[in-house]
Structures
1.
Amino acid sequence: MLSSNAGSALASGGYGNGPGPVPATPYSGFNPVLARAPYVTDLTQTSAVVNWATNPDIHGSISYGPTGSCTANVVPVLSGMVTQVRVSPNPTTTYAARLDYQSSVPLTGLSAGTAYCYEVFGSGTSAVDLLPASQPSQTFTTLDPVDLRSTTPLTFAVVGDFG
């Protein structure tokens, strides 16, 4: 049986006798052209793909390097690295559908088992870092070298969202 305050932490309310929505502070400080924050996919021992979305279509660049040297390398975003993504409107709101521009930039020639940091930049009048200066650079670590003698099973976690 649910307690009388079972729904108090639910942002949408509707269950129990809770006080209603939980107050939240919206994330701020990012460049408004950033439609989706950067994230890493396709991680291997020697490569990774960094993805992010902007609106409007601004081919920028990504800077990356070993931790502590996040701007050691720069890769410009080329036309073939950008895909239009239709963002459907929420049926309960009145904003129109729009196209976001998903950048997917491969980083190659990386070292196995090494931590890297990166920053994404816009272009033209948006050539600044798209994330707030108060936020530390984004990081990832490449996969460890293969040890063919190891009998330890490989385990990993997958985290995702609908974006």
2.
Amino acid sequence: MQTLQDIQSDARAPARSAGPFDPTARDDFSKTYSYFPAVPKPIIAAVNGACAGLGLVIALYADMRFASDAAVFTTAFSRRGLIAEHGVSWLLPRLVGIANAADLLYSARRVMPEEARQIGLVNRVFPHQSFEDDVMAYATMLAKEVSPRSLREIKREIWNAQFQGLGEAIDTANRDMVGSFRLRGLQGGVAHYLEKRAPAFTGR
């Protein structure tokens, strides 16, 4: 049986040189459970049942959360004599606001899917019966219709902007836009729009 220490060790992010991770990612995104923002691809948490405690922590680090109508959420910490673990005190207020975060963390009450959607804890709620198909349809849309380079750059911008002022975020976007204009992907994206055909992005 795995101990909590074993589980935490397994989930710790690999070295920055590992291929799936952005080598330029902030140090904030190299700690236990905080490495999802350093993965240069969208990460969707698909919640189709109970999501509590550490499971909720991991879901919060995803780029977005989809729930089935059979899901249920709870922070759980305060009812176990614990605290807001692994950066939840930073993540949750950014998703649901300070007052809602305080409610969910103080009370550790159960939150049903529709309330979770209303407060911004999840993006969408799908029927349990079609949940997997609905989530996969969204993921397939991203894979087929959106520039992979754009996804990679926008994800980096969104997460880094949490540590920036508005002026710095604007300056960063202006620098990134110059790089976009130099790449083949822009021409391909414009062409498929004008020609009303499916895109064929190269990822570069």
